[in-house]
Task: structure prediction
Amino acid sequence: MNQDSSPNLTEAVVTYSYRSGVLFFSRQSNHVLSSFLKEELQIGKKLSALFEHNLSLKIEDCLALCKKGKFQSLSYKNKLSTLQFYFSPILENNASRIEKVSIVVELEAFNSESNLIIDKENFQYDENYDEQVYSNLFFNNPDAVFSFDLEGNFVNANKSSAKLAETSIAEVLKMHFLPFIPEEDHSKVLDRFDKAKQGFNQNYQTTFKSLKGTFKYLEINLFPIYHKDQIIGVYGIAKDITSQKLEEKRILEERQMLRAIIDNIPDYIFVKDREHKSILANRKFYEQILGKTSDESSLGYTPMDYFDREKGELIIADNEWVMNTGQSVINRPDTVHNVHGKQEKVLLTKVPLKNQNADIIGLVGVARDITETYLYNKKQELVFKVIKAFGDKPTLHEAMVKVLEIFCTELGYDYAEAFQVSVNNEKIVRTAFWPLEKDLSKSVTTYEKGEKLPGKVWQSGKLQVLRQDDENQLLKDMLLSDGEVIKSAVGFPIIFQDKLVAIFCLGSIKDSKKIEIELLEDITLQIASAIERKRSQEQLNDFFNYSPNLIAVIGMDGFVKKINPSFKEKFGYSECEILTKPFAEFIHADDLAKTFEAIEKVYIEGTDFEIRCKRKDGEFLWISWRFSRFLEKENIIFVYGTDITPLKKAHGELSENIAELKVVQKKLEESEMKYRSLFDASPLPMWVLDRVNLRFLKVNKAAIELYGYTEEEFSKMTVKDLWVPGQDDIINPIISENQNDFFQVKLSHYKKNGDLIHVNVNSNPVSFDGIGARVSLIKNVTDRIKAEEKLFQSEQRFKALVQEGSDLISIVDENLNFFYNSPATYSVFGLDPSQLRHKNFKDYIHEEDLIILEDYLSKLEYQKRVQLPSYRIRGSENNWRWMETIMTDLKDEPAIRGIVMNSRDITDFVKQEKELLESLTRYNIVSKATSDIITDYDIQKDEIRVSEATFKIFGYEKGNGKYSRNWWNSKIHPEDHDYVRAAAREMKENEVKNLTLEYRFQCANGSYKYILDRSYLMLDEKGKPTRIIGSMQDITERKQHLIAIENHNRRLKEIAWTQSHMVRAPLAKLMGLVDLLLNYKNDLENIDEILEIILTSANELDSVIRKIATQTE
Amino acid sequence: MLRTIIVDDDEIVTFLQKKIVSKCELDPDPISFKDAGEALRFLGQDSDPELSYLIMLDINMPNMSGWEFLEEIKNIPDNDRFHVVMVTSSIDRKDKRDAANDPHVIDFIEKPVSAKHCAKLKGISKLEKYFAES
Result:
């Protein structure tokens, strides 16, 4: 805009910058202002310095106000003319402050009519300006120049205007300006127009649309048109600034894009000038380093402003070097602390910044944040070291110690421990610690869940950090040996596949030790797998070393490469001996082929093969080998061996047993053959029967010959078909009782032809073709039986004769006529046996007795044997002899054919008995009179005779009046039994003469009676106890009376006691109350009450006594 | 100090004994229980551990007899503070014998309890110290 396009000769237009002074002025300006200026108007001059002092001050005021955005006007006069100043602040895009002012100055001369007069109808120039010049200026002006009436309608327009509007001047002059302005700028443009109408010059930018729709940016200047102090219109210049505007816009957009780019780069980007002041910084830089929200590089920060002094100086020196030498710094590792105090590892690049002339005007810096990469590398390094430790160390324990050491040295800890969960899962046990000379847990190396740091980690399954000043005080007493205290600690679990493998605890003596939680957590998995690997490796080693089985690696070259200790134990060789000789030397010669074959086939199938291997002492062991892995490249095989020598031995024994068994079996078969032929060839009949239904299964020739049935006929029969009827009762029980046993039986069989034969059968259980069977041997004893029968008959007679030989033996016919008498009869009858022959037995019997005997004799008709009661027979001297006879009917017996009489002369015995009876009768009479029971126990006969009274008292049937001792004892009351028996024994054994006992004896009806038994022991002439005579008195009634009296007494006593107590209770109260009254009469508050109680107690006593009276009635 | 406890199911008896006990200056205000169980609870839970107790115990009582009571107090800790006088209306030599064998029983009184009895109690060696001043 340095070009002046103003046609106005009485007006000066100046654009003024507060900072840089005059930026622009219209060409006429020096002329217009000439009479007021001290010196000529020039670009860069300060306004205040141009004008005379008074005016300068006023202008300064206006400028100051204008800077605040206020339009100002100022009027100033000198003797020639008046200057009218209009100050308009220029508002610029993106500018927060008003930097520039547009100043329009109008000159009014007092004595001239030179002002431009504008009439409404037409323009009249009564100025003395050349119309030509003017119209040229107007019409050929490259800017659009135009004027409006006060309504805003075009009054005048030059060519440029028409061109801008893309129409003819005539068209323009018919129009209002508004249609050319896009709607968004309407209000702004109207506002400007209004201001111009009010006399204020306007300078502004607006958008524009031609009639054809072409879009433009215009800079507009509007000036009011005065006529005789009256504003009659507005005159304007429009400058097409579209290309400039678009360029600006493009630059702006580009800048914004660049800004967006650099702001989104994760590196720090900064541009410095030679004074180390910031020219530009990206967002990462201004946010992370400066802590700002926008780029304020224009404020010119230096490193001293955002780093500490030391760091700042270093950077400045470094930057200086870059800028001075023109050399770049590329990817130099550096450390920065951002505003949040976080330390970051960066790779720094600085390159010098050059202008078009290749002068170094500053530098561009890029710092890449590589903290994460750094940490990652560090982590990798740590993991590598840990894994290496597990690889290097032979045992898990040593590896753990090494790992703890790595943790301490790499991460800066002073003490470390590792724990492992105990096998029973109840505790954790320390497995390692480092440094080895600092053992913090001399006493405690196991922890419960939740106990201390290790226990807490175990419980939570998570990393735990402890600090010295924590509330839980868990770090208390954690003293290292050199007096240092652990102030920070971290514990973390090592988890592998959800299983807690170990717990690591690290301690530091620094109280604010930085704990790389993420790092620790990240590497636990690798440590876990390393531990697990080491552990399984160790287990594998253990397995190898301690396995009772043989484990070896053998080479295809015929040598053993590696053996486990089991070899030494089994074979007795040293490892060296085995490894230095071909293995073939250890194998039994007979098994070598087998061995090599197995080795050849190894990669086809891995089955077991059994060979004999030599022990150092020369013995061979049976070993079962199995190949596991063939490593082709190394040409080796893993083999596993098991000593099966004992198994082999057992197997051998078993085979022997089996062989033996076979021999036995064969023998058995042979013997069976023998037996079979024995069966067939036996001269004795034999057969085999089904054990259950007795069907013939097999018969031999002899049987066929004997019985006359064919083999086929036999096969359809059972042995029962042979039985002579009526033997079932004999044979069936024998068969059923001896189902599985041998038995022997004598039977009669029918042959096929109906002959009866007597046989002895020996039968044995056998298994015949799998069926339970019997083999029976038949012995035909028919001939023998017949012979025996004859013999038996004669024997029978003989037997009958000698039967009861000492007595009289007679045989009578059915009419009781004697036909045989033994010689002994003489002593009875006084007749020779021959004399007695044919005499009748009855003729000798006492008449009285015959009557009784007839009954008995008649019994002989149906009874084989009759015992006759004692009877009398007439003896030789006509005396009567007492006889006892047993008659046996043996009429069917061919050897006898009569009735045998066995008689005994009992005359003396009867006499004796008679005497005894008489004495007993006397005794009975006495006993009857006493009403006591008299017992007579014959010790020898073990028999008790009792007196009549017994039956009456006890109710037993009289019978013969004799009882066995057992029966008698069984009647004694069970409770008394033992003591009665003891007493009786005492009496017999110790010969106690007299005994008095009281006991209960059972009656026939089951009830008991109380007995007082007085016994007396009788001795024979040799002093041996023979009998016990007893007298039993029934004392039941007396006894019961006694019991009743005792009971009664007891009850009376009880009543008396209770009643005395009952009586005494109220009586005692009465006594007490009276005592109280007597002794404390004057001391009692309420005598009436006491008297009342006395009455109550007296009544109570009364009622008690009454009650007793009724009870005892 | 010695406090007196009267245990008897008969209210007239407790009334009477309270009077006598207070008149004889054994205890100005003896405590009485109608039920041995209650007395037991009192001794076990509410008694003053600093004090000794003279217990005048009836034998024949419903719910809990004097004998049972005597067994039960053995279960109370610190029971040597309890001195029992068996009080009964009936004279039974066996009772007397049993009582003599019990360490807690210091005397056996036949009802009614009289001033003479009370005076005699004061003279019993185990109780003497509590009445030394008077």
Q: What stands out?
A: Strands of chain B lie at 2-7, 31-33, 52-58, 82-88, 105-110. The radius of gyration of chain B is 13 Å. The CA atoms of residues 44 and 76 of chain B lie 6 Å apart.
